[in-house]
Amino acid sequence: MPFKVAVIIRCYVYNYLYQIVLIFYPNAALFFLVLISYSDTINATKDTIRNVTLLLEPGEDLCLACPVTDSEVKKMEWWLGMKELRLYRDSITVTDYYKSSLNTCSPGNYSLGIQNIPINLSDTEYTCWRSGELLAVFKIKIEVTPTVKILFSHDNYPSTEAVVDDLTCVIYRAIQPFNITWFVDGLFHKQYMFNDRDRSIANFNSTISATSVPFRRNFANISCQIDGPFVAFGSNFIVLRHTFGQNDTAFSTLTAETSGKATSLLVCLKTSTLFEYWSAQYFHNERNQKCFAKVLSGSATVDEARSFQELALNLRSLKEHSNLVKIVYIAVDEVPQTIFYEHMNFGTLRDFMMSNYQESRASRAISKVVNMNKTLKHNMNNQLRDLLYFSSSVTKGIRYISKHKFSHPALRLNKVLLTQHGECKIYDICQTEKAMRRIAEHMEKEHPPIAWMSPEAVFNNQYTEASDVWGLAVLFWELYSFGALPLVTLSNSEVEQRMAEGLNLPQPSFCPAAMYNMMVSCWDVRQGHRPTFKEIQNQINDIFNNLEKEKQKDNVFENEQLPYFVLEG
């Protein structure tokens, strides 16, 4: 609940209670006011208390510093818990508890030091008080960070791959109690509990039979995880491939732990004929981080697998760019072949347009039939600046990949992802020389995105940089139409006929004439007459600069700050 709303509600409640007390117990009214005042004082004091949670391993030394200097040590106390056991009063030892010492570990502060902290102090609190007032709370959490590995035993057969008998999850450096849980393709498989009274750090393992693994396809993603009160979460992941050989059933395994990164496929989000899309994680900078994975389907042919591997290896040559979704890891030397992308949790540009700009359509219609007032014009100019920013951001991304011989057939708003700062990033690109294969895959769909495809790609089996220019202009049309889809009421054959005659989608009501004229030039059936990405970028810059000049000329927004983005050539 917002703070202001909470305060207002509390005031009404206090006033109501006070009126009742005043009517039925007039002698207690003054006491009630004092009680309310004391309650508010306590609530205000809570915000000034220092709360700290400390994460330690058993045997480490602990130093707690109260937020006062040792020169102010008057009526100071250290307690275990909320005054459950007093340890020190001023400089006097009250209870000798776990080799603690006063004012030895943090010079200049009223501090408490504990050496070789034991495991049974986990989840305890130390509190510092002055004249009965709580100054600081230190919560102690003791745990170790385990290393998790999956090992396998196997027999070797002539002219066959290794046949895996057992899978063993080995946990290095853990403290009981904890659970080891096995997952297959993100689903629970088996769990083992370790609950001995021994609280020392040790190594443990859990084994399952490979023949117990359920296969939904010719491979399974197997992971084991550990969790418990004294261990940080840890996991590892392998792929078990299922083949048929001499003894009817054989298994081979390949680990996805390479170059210091351990990856895990978690939940399958979407499947297509050739690919699966998973939410995933990879281990980096000492912790698991979210990512997104594109996995080659087990039904892919040898040629399709080779093509995917070639694409992945070529993607490695691309340097990181602010308008291209970052690849965090590539696993194409094992099954399943996978490309792991950075986690983008702010949705697609189409999602953003549909959720934020649909009400703007009514404003556009009104502005055509009435004289615009200054407020409406101000709002429209701000929205236009946003759309120009998105246009420039996508153009920079497609221009960058084009320089490196990559393309994006049928680029659309739902192929552009947004960062939390509104930066656009394109994904799902391919080599230009392989673009026609991507077009063929699109055309096999029930609803192919023909409206975003160039005529030479649809009719002449040809794809060039100019084909991407055509598609980019259709994306602009989507953008300035606030997420509307082009030619959505026409059949595939009718769309192809419109394309052959010259696309010329109608001008969106909110689209500047200069921007629309540029779109039309991109839809020229003659490839050589379409503008380049650099020319498109320059035209967007010009439109933005003209918008700024118009704003200054109108002198409406004198106190407004400068634009939050800068367009670059």
UniProtKB/TrEMBL annotation:
This is TKL protein kinase. Keywords: Kinase, Magnesium, Membrane, Metal-binding, Transferase, Transmembrane, Transmembrane helix. InterPro entries: Ig-like_dom, Kinase-like_dom_sf, Prot_kinase_dom, RTK, Ser-Thr/Tyr_kinase_cat_dom. One of its GO terms (cellular component) is plasma membrane. Gene3D superfamilies: Transferase(Phosphotransferase) domain 1. Pfam families: PK_Tyr_Ser-Thr (PF07714). One of its GO terms (biological process) is cell surface receptor protein tyrosine kinase signaling pathway. Mg(2+) binds at D428. The chain crosses the membrane at residues 12-38. Residues 146-226 form the Ig-like domain. The keyword Transferase applies. GO terms for molecular function: ATP binding; metal ion binding; transmembrane receptor protein tyrosine kinase activity. Residues 251-544 form the Protein kinase domain.
